[in-house]
């Protein structure tokens, strides 16, 4: 083994043993060179090896920090059981999760929202003023579907950088990702149709399916490998499926990433059965290791994929700036949007177009990805330290949520109630299923800054969870 590998292995051992913890700064390449008596190139290469393994992340003009160790998911793999089409009935707890995200006196671990100061608010305000100076008439007119050309062009340019070539004419501006998903479902499915989804699945999507009176077929999803393509094919052959709806890039709540080969197979499966495939791509820019993965749309040759996304998780939820690629459903989507919302906000589109065209967007995204790499590691470490013995959690590849499995028999709904009484909001697992599964699971939001208050909240949540673990009595 060469010197850089030996040096990287030594540091990795310290990270794995807990001597070096998530969020801690490691020696710079110059410090490492001096302390270990090795050349500067050796120290640089050791840093690169650690970054390639996802163990550390470098923050420009700040230093290199511990992220890992990156462990395989400990979550119990699901049973390979294909459900029958069923109606969706989302618990009323969803409203409580959204309301608690707005409460100033709660530690927000429930809804997947960022601390406001993580958004580029100053830059967005500046681009807003610029847009109004250059075109004051923006606030006096509609941007009818498909939306402003420059906004759609900037989205097209970004997608082209990541292996997905689409013309701006194929892009539709929307009021956030949820409008895009709702339009995609309305364009492809009649009421009563069955939609093939991953399980667990984001409760906002389940709400949208319920409101449109659609049924679901839930596919148990592996916390590391994602959905089983053999089961996808079985469901397409067994049931009359109106559409599929998947989150291949950093699913919510598992954080799994489907590789390109399996994406191509998934798109081909739906194309062969002539069933539309809807993609929620909202977390794709938030990779914790490596660059932005390609969307399913990159593998679409027949126009059957409808890709939906927004900038609410990365730039500004207040602007409600989303977009979609409707494929062969373009004209139907435009008509549906025109009859419902009259299109996305003209000012929001102009502001995002300016921000995307600037260098500030890339700098902001690099900073945000670094923050989430550190924060997911810190929260994961706190869960391992403070939660009951036998607790398991995911190792997300991207995004900023953690899926936590508590010991069998532990009621996460009751934990949610007790947590609220202690000033902490969480999302219990039953919200992520149409069939009341995952009662001993919860999702934690890592979109906050690490503070003493957050550390205390996680420790308190661990205490509350321990009190709810059933006592196993010996015979």
TrEMBL record:
It comes from the Bacteria. Signal peptide: none annotated. InterPro entries: Aminotransferase_I/II_large (IPR004839), HTH_trans_reg/aminotransferase (IPR051446), PyrdxlP-dep_Trfase (IPR015424), PyrdxlP-dep_Trfase_major (IPR015421), PyrdxlP-dep_Trfase_small (IPR015422), Tscrpt_reg_HTH_GntR (IPR000524), WH-like_DNA-bd_sf (IPR036388), WH_DNA-bd_sf (IPR036390). Keywords: Aminotransferase, DNA-binding, Pyridoxal phosphate, Transcription, Transcription regulation, Transferase. SMART domains: HTH_GNTR. In the C-terminal section; belongs to the class-I pyridoxal-phosphate-dependent aminotransferase family. This is PLP-dependent aminotransferase family protein. It comes from Pyxidicoccus parkwayensis.
């Amino acid at each position: 083994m060469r010197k850089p590998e030996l040096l990287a292995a030594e540091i990795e051992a310290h990270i794995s043993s807990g001597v070096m913890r998530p969020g801690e700064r490691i020696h710079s390449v110059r410090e490492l060179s001096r302390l270990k008596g090795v050349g500067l190139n050796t120290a640089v290469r050791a840093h690169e090896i650690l970054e390639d393994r996802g163990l550390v992340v470098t923050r420009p003009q700040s230093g290199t920090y511990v992220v890992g160790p990156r462990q395989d998911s400990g979550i119990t793999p699901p049973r390979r059981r294909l459900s029958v089409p069923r109606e969706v009935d989302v618990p009323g707890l969803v409203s409580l999760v959204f309301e608690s995200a707005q409460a100033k006196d709660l530690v927000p671990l429930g809804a997947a929202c960022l601390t406001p100061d993580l958004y580029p608010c100053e830059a967005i305000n500046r681009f807003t003023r610029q847009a109004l100076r250059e075109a004051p008439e923006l606030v006096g007119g509609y941007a009818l579907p498909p939306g402003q050309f420059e906004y759609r062009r900037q989205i097209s340019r970004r997608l082209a950088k990541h292996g997905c070539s689409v013309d701006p004419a194929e892009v539709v501006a929307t009021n956030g990702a949820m409008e895009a998903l709702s339009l995609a479902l309305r364009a492809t499915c009649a009421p009563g149709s069955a939609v093939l989804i991953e399980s667990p699945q984001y409760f906002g999507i389940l709400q949208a399916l319920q409101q449109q009176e659609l049924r679901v077929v839930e596919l148990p999803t592996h916390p590391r490998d994602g959905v089983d393509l053999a089961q996808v094919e079985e469901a397409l052959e067994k049931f009359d499926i109106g559409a599929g709806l998947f989150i291949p890039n950093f699913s919510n709540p598992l954080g799994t990433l489907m590789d390109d080969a399996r994406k191509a197979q998934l798109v081909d499966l739906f194309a062969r059965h002539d069933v539309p495939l809807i993609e929620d791509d909202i977390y794709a820019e938030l990779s914790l290791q490596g660059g932005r993965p390609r969307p399913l749309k990159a593998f679409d040759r027949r126009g059957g994929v409808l890709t939906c996304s927004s900038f609410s998780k990365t730039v500004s939820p207040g602007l409600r700036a989303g977009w979609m690629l409707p494929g062969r459903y373009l004209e139907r989507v435009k008509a549906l949007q025109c009859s419902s919302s009259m299109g996305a906000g003209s000012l929001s589109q102009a502001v995002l177009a300016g921000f995307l065209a600037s260098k500030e967007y890339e700098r902001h995204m690099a900073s945000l990805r670094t923050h989430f790499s550190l924060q997911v590691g810190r929260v994961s470490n706190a869960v391992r330290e403070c939660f009951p013995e036998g607790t398991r959690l995911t190792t997300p590849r991207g995004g900023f949520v953690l899926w936590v499995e508590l010991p069998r028999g532990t009621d996460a709904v009751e934990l949610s109630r007790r947590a609220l009484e202690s000033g902490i909001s969480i999302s219990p697992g039953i919200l992520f299923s149409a069939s009341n599964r995952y009662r001993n699971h919860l999702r934690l939001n890592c979109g906050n800054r690490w503070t003493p208050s957050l550390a205390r909240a996680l420790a308190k949540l661990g205490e509350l969870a321990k009190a709810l673990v059933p006592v196993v009595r010996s015979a």
